TrEMBL record:
Superkingdom, natural source: Eukaryota
Highest classification ranks of the organism: Eukaryota, Metazoa, Chordata, Craniata, Vertebrata
Claim: Secreted is one of the keywords in the record: no
Subunit structure: Interacts with YTHDC2, MEIOC, MOV10, CNOT6L, DDX4, UPF1 and PABPC1.
Organism: Delphinapterus leucas (Beluga whale)
Gene assigned in the entry: RBM46
The protein's name: Probable RNA-binding protein 46
Coarse class of the protein's main subcellular location: cytoplasm
GO CC terms of this entry: cytoplasm
Ranges of residues in domain RRM: 61-139, 141-223, 236-308
Amino acid sequence: MNEENTDGTNGCSKVRTGTQNEAALLALMEKTGYNMVQENGQRKFGGPPPGWEGPPPPRGCEVFVGKIPRDMYEDELVPVFERAGKIYEFRLMMEFSGENRGYAFVMYTTKEEAQLAIRILNNYEIRPGKFIGVCVSLDNCRLFIGAIPKEKKKEEILDEMKKVTEGVVDVIVYPSATDKTKNRGFAFVEYESHRAAAMARRKLIPGTFQLWGHTIQVDWADPEKEVDEETMQRVKVLYVRNLMISTAEETIKVEFSKFKPGAVERVKKLRDYAFVHFFNREDAVAAMSVMNGKCIDGARIEVTLAKPVIKENTGRQHLNGQISPNSENLIVFANKEESYPKTLGKPPTLPARLNGQHSPGPPEIERCTYPLFPGTKLTPISMYSLKSSHFNSAVMHLDYYCNKNNWAPPEYYLYSTTSQDGKVLLIYKIVIPAIANGSQSYFMPDKLCTTLEDAKELAAQFTLLHLDREHSLFSLDLCRRIRRK
């Protein structure tokens, strides 16, 4: 416990001693009946609460809380979050000094309570001028495994992963776009719990671990973005994957129209996947049941409902060490299969931005624009006064991140090499002066790019990922890599 802390309740700035902190926490425990235990850099309040019977709440009941004042503790935070419902467990991340680390996880007893907490407490002014951020916390149980031999079948990969790691539930393997007898060179491994996935990642990640004589790539898979049930009930577009590249849009339309002629409005195909738009949702759902698993031009297809984009978050990016679609988009496979996507799922919009690669046609960049009328008053502002949601570029996010932490701007160093076919390939090394003497002196991705813009963006994405892991101060507005450590 700190020797002294500032008690900012109701805007006061009284100094609170460690003894007073302890007294306040004891009073909270006595009032609520919850236990409190500190271990592994976090302090757990509850989990389970008094009188709880049965298993813990399911996934989707936990929220992530960021931008918490460092001298604020459970006696102030718990009453605020109890407004949304019954707390199953409150986990406040702690420093050795006794201060909190600026973020926490709150698990409620139901998903509805967690959603209510997000609605009423995101951007809540916890102290004068201090706004917290609240978003869903995803308990990731899935790993991305790259550089897998392409001739390996799902059963072989599953058996091998079960031999080298514990708690494997399933593996998800996608066939190659050009040769359906081969995989794409990567797989997703599902584990029985986050802990099992974390232990497997720890064992496999050093880079020296090999499967079938190949050094594999291992990282967390980006969790699928959950779309609320009410929104999904309005979807009337199907996502169709595993198509042959040669399959035409007209062929897809004919096949999906067989069960009810005239039901399909239009089809949009990109490479080996397509979107089938229906006039009515009922027809889309019926077609999904009929067509899933069917063969078109010799390829067995997978059919699901497409997930729509949440407009307010369009433009945010997955900061996962590689270029990726908007935070609400799922996966769009790049032209080169060596570009490993670490998100499992489907692309919900057309056309979508691809993972640092160019799509078969020129990508359409969606911009929200308004007319500038003559005489409109314009006010000079600093970019650092904006929220991170105003930035689409990872380069801008990184600059913003450094500024918010009172660090000097990132330094970019450009390097090049030549590919076997004579192309100039580029890569950036990024140095963050404020932490250059710390745990990592520089950040450099493991992918080369053909354009300067892509190389810089990729390096910034990679750096943000590792800063997020190491410093846990990442702005909640970027909440894209929320997971338990």
